[in-house]
Amino acid sequence: MKTEILKIDIDNIDEDKIKYAAKVIEQGGLVAFPTETVYGLGANALNEAAVKKIFEAKGRPSDNPLIVHVADKSSVEKLVLQIPDKAVKLMDTFWPGPMTLVMDKQSIVPKIITAGLDTVAVRVPSHPIALALIRAANLPIAAPSANVSGKPSPTHSKHVINDLNGKVDVIIDGGFSNIGVESTVVDMVVDPPMLLRPGGVTLEQLEAVIGEVRIDPALLQKKFDDVTVPKSPGMKYKHYAPKAKVVIVEGEIQKIAFKINQLVREYESKDIKVGILATDETKHLYPENLTVSLGSRLHPETIAANLFNAFRYYDKTDVQTIFAEAVDNSGIGLAIMNRMSKAAGYNIIKV
Ligand code: TXA
Ligand code: MG
Fold first, then answer.
1. Are residues 38 and 91 in the same domain?
2. 33 near 13, Cβ under 8 Å?
């Protein structure tokens, strides 16, 4: 299949190109488009055959449900049985934006989207190109992240082109996604609501609006093995992963740097090519040629925005093991540590 690349300027949206992409969605095709979190791979959510193509293009397991993207709160009413009061409050506060709510679905939502579940995940993105596309198509758009399954989510069109060129009808090139980690997923079917995936909207922000939010116990699960990759369940938990092995070092900053330098010497003596994911505050503590800074610890949003891009950068090098500094778990840090931990297969060294 020939993939068309449509370059669209976020500050000066070409409506003809949007209409063209919307037509492709209406006719059952696949369009990758930028959102403020990561790029999505979109299809008409009400067309089962079109949604099936998403799973095929990504190589996504059919038991992993998709998020349905709509343009406004009122469009959600057609998709879900009821909108709980707390969901209304969250929508009014954080939409359009990086938050996805899980609610009981109506029968109009095809089973293929929800992987057979009775619930559906919905979100109103804030990216102007995403919103323009949904409005022009005048349809709910099912869209997982636009990466090949198992790879880090794409935060730039070049990542999407790398993964999906030749497998989808259209890729909209809209530059970088500025948040860089996926949306926060909250299960609103239970009360108190439950955080299923930390993301662009923080746990603290959610709780400030609706009070207690529980955390899915699976998110807190950690394995504190030494530098070996866990024998099992390994792949089951490994997502968002670069080709290189990732090892996280967690603790007080000076101790982290000491440990990473020690590991670097040890690995290099065994001829293993290493890389270091550091921060602006610590990068000077490491050999310069091995180190990438994700940004300042004072601005963890920057670290979130750069993380997947850094993982993909390492895929283009011959680095075999990446040592990554842990960051604080609060705010957006919870999402950063969740993605890093998954990439590391929960391979975390505490110092
Ligand atoms: O930021 C994002 O959410 C991006 C952009 C494109 O919007 N999309 C995204 O989609 O990250 P995806 O498919 O990569 O992740 C969707 C997540 C998965 O963890 C999936 O298991 C969960 O949402 N999910 C979807 N429907 C669900 C449901 N009914 N119940 C529980 N979890 C659900
Ligand atoms: Mg994904």
1. yes
2. no
